Amino acid sequence: MRRPAAGRKGRKKFISGKNKQNAVKSVVVTNARGRLLLCSPAEPASCANITHGWKLGLVKLPADGPAVESLADAGYQGLGAQTGGRVVTPPYRKFKKNTPEWYEEMHGRQLKEHSSRRILVEHCSGHLKNWRSLARHHGRRDT
Hints:
6 strands; two-stranded antiparallel sheet; alpha+beta
């Protein structure tokens, strides 16, 4: 991603806080077979995933629409409670230290089940990245 020169206004807007990289984010929605339904406009990566979902109105869709289950990644943690359980995210880790062995096994099984259901979404976004579809049309930052 191109950015303004050092010392110029707006340079830090596209830098991700966690990865310290210039990046943009897009929200990708697919159907159960992995076909692309929606690819949002690119946004600066300095904003959280869940904020992008709020801006696009993706939070209101599951709450107001038909009872459809949506699988999301960990960036949308907490959306399940806001949408009445219609958005499913990976399970949150309850124990940080001194984790019981039974919990470790259960948590691992839940993570594997979620990721195996979400793999078609990852394949679709990987396909978009391979063909540079997400990077091709935003050469200028202001458009």
